[in-house]
Design goal:
By secondary structure, this protein is α+β, with helices and mostly antiparallel strands. 15% of the residues lie in helices and 38% in strands. The protein has 1 helix and 9 strands; from the N terminus they run H-E-E-E-E-E-E-E-E-E. The strands form 2 sheets. The chain has a 5-stranded antiparallel sheet with strand order 5-6-3-8-9, with no helix packed on it. Strands 1-2-7-4 form a 4-stranded antiparallel sheet, with no helix packed on it. The protein starts with 35 loop residues before the first helix and ends with a strand.
Length: 168
């Protein structure tokens, strides 16, 4: 009696097309029968990697600001450096007489020395400032006499505050 070749069909490996019909079994890179789960796992792995990357990017955009006050100058002015991420961005900056209060221009003479004023809501008190390309804006505020002011800066919904104390 002669030798008989028996061909086995593995229906698990049949890949469904968009019309619901099944194509021929396919092999994956390891030579194993490929299943629809292989495609799904590959897609999920790719999606997960993209989401991790997007999440890290969005976290960096969410903004973390550093506020640094310089020493009071001879003109009774204090310059505050507002540093965000290393790209151009918009900060809302305002001055108030108490922490996290509404903007107040009382006694202030305010200039922006680094960055560009995009909008002035209240002169000497409330601005939208576009940083330079490195994410830096510098605001100088002058108050005559002894005083305390708070500079608030907001980016991406987060508000940061810095107390400024002026000597007599």
């Amino acid at each position: 009696m002669g030798r008989m070749d028996i061909k086995r069909k593995d229906t698990r490996a049949a890949i469904a097309s968009a019309d619901g019909k099944y194509g021929e079994p396919q092999m994956n890179a390891n030579g194993d029968l490929r299943t629809r789960d292989d495609d799904l796992n590959t897609a999920l792995t790719t999606l997960n990697a993209a989401l991790v990357t997007a999440n890290a990017y969005l976290a960096s955009l969410a903004g973390v600001l550093t506020l640094t006050a310089g020493a009071e100058g001879g003109d009774s002015g204090i310059s505050v450096t507002i540093q965000g991420g290393a790209w151009r961005q918009i900060f809302r900056v305002w001055l108030a007489e108490t922490d996290l209060a509404a903007p107040s221009a009382t006694g202030n003479t305010t200039t922006v020395t680094t960055g560009t004023i995009q909008r002035t809501a209240t002169a000497n008190a409330d601005y939208d400032i576009i940083s330079d390309a490195s994410g830096t804006a510098v605001v100088k505020n002058i108050v005559a006499g002894a005083a305390t002011r708070f500079l608030m800066a907001e980016v991406a919904g987060r508000t940061y505050s810095l107390e400024l104390t002026y000597a007599a």
